[in-house]
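The passage that follows is intended for readers who have already worked through the single-chain material. We present the inputs for a multi-component assembly, then the predicted structure in tokenized form, and finally a short commentary. You are encouraged to pause after the input and sketch how you expect the pieces to fit together before reading on.
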Amino acid sequence: MTRILITSAIPYINGVKHLGTLVGSQLPADLYARFMRQRGAEVLFLCATDEHGTPAELAATKAGLAIEDYCTQMHETQAELSRGFRLSFDHFGRSSSVQNKRLTQYFAGVLAENGFIEERSEKQVYSNTDGRFLPDRYIEGTCPNCGYERARGDQCENCTKQLDPTDLINPRSVISGSTDLEVRETKHLYLKQSALKDDLDAWIDSKTDWPILTTSIAKKWLHDGDGLQDRGITRDLYWGVPVQKGEEPWPGMEGKVFYVWFDAPIEYLACAAEWSDANGTEDEAWWRWWRTDEGADDVRYVQFMGKDNVPFHTLSFPATIMGSREPWKLVDYIKSFNFLNYEGGQFSTSLGRGVFMDDALEILPSDYWRWWLLSNAPETSDTEFTWEKFQAGVNKDLADVLGNFVSRITKFCRSKFGQEVPAGGEIGDGGTALIAELEGRISTYVGHMEAMEVRKAAAELRAIWVAGNEFLQAAAPWSTIKTDVDRAAADTRLALNLIRVYAVLSAPFIPDASAAMLAAMRTEETIWPGDLTTALSRLPPGHGFDVPDVLFRKVLDEEREEWAARFAGSDN
RNA sequence: GGGCCUGUAGCUCAAUUGGUUAGAGCAGAGCGCUCAUAACGCUUUGGUUGCGGGUUCAAGUCCUGCCGGGCCUACCA
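Having made your guess, compare it with the prediction:
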């Protein structure tokens, strides 16, 4: 059996994520996971919260909570929203888990043994008032180049000049505003990515089928300037995985933690370990997904992420795996996405601009969001969410094309034949033509889904729904019933069976509506339709059904206007 | 500044990797149907493929120069 390991980029802990984050990784990953399970593959689909780092500490302080409690709360919030969007993770883990702590320390130790870790001493800005070292971005001051007063320590937003925090005039802490800053000497560990550059380069070169977005970003980092740079993997923070060399202390590194971008990808492994532990199974259970010497050699590993995550997944994390010189699984395919914008600008957490996961579920069922976001996934370029497009898309596709199809045929049958699949007649020319068309379209749909061509798959699925309406229109059982009851019965029977087939085909995109369709047809038969003629006679004459409630109500103009105003955010 | 991506119908996107007359959906127009959520079906309007050069028997596709949009640029994650 095909075995597929799927991971979605792990969302950061410091708040509810917006729709852009959702469509860039978790949603398409879920689509793929659901589809591959339907097709008979053995799937392990993992996601987690990314909990370490400065922003998490500051968010916790702002919320008046201990960082540990804050993360526990926010993890539960995000887990609940994931359930709301029907994200079918086999496990939703936490990068702060003991499993991740152990594995992160383990990898650091192995990398050190293999000579891929280097200690470097460097100067960093320390804030006496805040009692902590400040990342470059958390220092503000006047730009020496253009005079902009709110330039950050890494770059001036106004003139785009790259800066060093010590370049700033009148530097101050972004956290407290304090100017009581000093430069202190501190020691950090670096991952010697440069020593693995040739291995990484050859590996990326071999991935000719990856999205251009993925490989071009990787190649840029590999070849830009002096080539791939070594990366600092430790920080002077409280909240994180304590720096240790495996189980041993790391002299000189006391009180320091690993950088989030070192431990976050390792959580992909740790999450599998969490999953195994949660199920009460031994380590072999997750090793068979992650260790090629323990059964993972036939696993296909696919990652989903937004483009901002690509450098870490194509370079840093693979460097960690390669540098271990151990048989851990490397990713086989990286599906990356561009960004989703909101009404002509960016989503903004601080301005409350745009739709966030909790808002979305509050106003409409998850299927509406899943369908629109996936059928408009930002695959080739950044794409834009507007309420008008959203309304037009879901009303037309879900309500008019699919929902109304289910409604018209079930209600027709109820009024003319009663609430069971009618007997009599056989598939006619129209039915034969429909089956031929659908066989072609389903084959195309499967091809797009296997290739993770999300928008193309959605367009094909929609065409499959449209074919049902075309068939009904041509067969016109409401007319033929007057002269040829068997003809009308056979066509009605075919159309009712089509509902079940649509439910199965559509399940990866709209799982709730799919379940409602199956329930209405009083069936739990969800096997993938191989032979269509057989699949379309699965519900035999006499099989009872219910006329379902409206599957998708329409989004009204008033609602659209109200939501557009509500989520516009403040202007400054 | 550098790099990458991108520009095709009013809108959102395709175009088998250089090969017939550039196609779909939405929106618009007309017709049909009356089972259905004012739904559905059929027909149809609409393009100098951002602009200018070049290569080629052949260019939306390749090269080059402009113009516009976006992203990244390594201590936010």
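Commentary: The longest helix of chain A spans residues 387-416. Residues 15 and 71 of chain A are 10 Å apart (CA to CA). How closely did your sketch match?
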